[in-house]
Design brief:
Elements (H helix, E strand, L loop, with lengths): L7 H24 L9 H8 L25 E3 L5 E3 L2 H9 L20 H13 L2
Antiparallel strand pairs: 1-2
The structure holds heme C.
Heme C (HEC) binds next to helix 3.
C-alpha cells in the first residue's frame, strides 16, 4: 500500500499560495513607500505599525480600504447604517477594528496596540490624503 498522495494541483496551489501572498504584501508596501524626507510623521508610523501593508495612500485596492479620499467619504456598514468618515470614526476604527464593519469588507482588520498619541498622528496623516 502506498501512503496517501495529494493530487498535484492542490499541492502546487499550496506551494504558490504563500509566495503569492508575500508578493502581494511586498507590492502593497512598496506602493506606500514615498521618500522618507518630508513625509508626514503619520506615514512613517503607518509603515512601522504595518498598516501600510493593507492600506494604500494612493487609491490602490489592498487587503484594507485605501486611505486616499477616506476622510469625508460615506461608508455603508453591515448594520444597515451609513457613516460619514470623520475624525472620531477614524480613531474608533483603529482602536476598535471590530466596530463599524463596512458592507464590502473582505476580512477583519487585526487588533493592534498602537498608543493613543500615535493613533492621533496616523489619523492626522489619513486626513491629509485627499
Ligand atoms: C491585515 C490588514 C490590515 C492591517 C495590517 C491594518 N488594517 Fe486597517 N483595515 C483593514 C480592513 C480589512 C478594514 C475594513 C474593516 C471594516 O470594514 O470594518 C480596515 C479598516 C480600517 C479603517 C477604517 C476605514 C474603513 O473604510 O472602514 C482605518 C482608519 C484603518 N483600518 C486604519 C488602520 C491602521 C492605522 C492600521 C495600523 C495600525 C491598520 N489599519 C492595519 C485591514 C488592515
Amino acid at each position: 500500500m502506498r501512503g496517501v498522495t495529494h493530487p498535484p494541483i492542490s499541492r502546487r496551489a499550496l506551494q504558490l499560495l504563500p509566495a503569492g501572498l508575500a508578493a502581494a504584501v511586498v507590492v502593497l508596501v512598496a506602493c506606500g513607500a514615498d521618500p522618507d524626507t518630508g513625509a508626514h510623521p503619520g506615514q512613517r508610523l503607518a509603515k512601522d505599525y504595518g498598516c501600510a501593508a493593507c492600506h494604500s495612500s494612493n487609491g490602490d485596492v489592498g487587503l484594507g480600504p485605501t486611505w486616499k479620499g477616506l476622510y469625508g467619504s460615506q461608508i455603508p456598514l453591515q448594520d444597515g447604517t451609513t457613516v460619514t468618515v470623520d475624525r472620531d470614526f477614524l480613531v474608533r476604527s483603529i482602536k476598535d477594528p471590530a466596530a463599524d464593519v463596512a458592507v464590502d469588507n473582505k476580512l477583519p482588520m487585526p487588533v493592534n496596540n498602537v498608543p493613543d498619541a500615535d493613533v492621533q498622528t496616523i489619523v492626522d496623516y489619513i486626513i491629509t490624503l485627499k
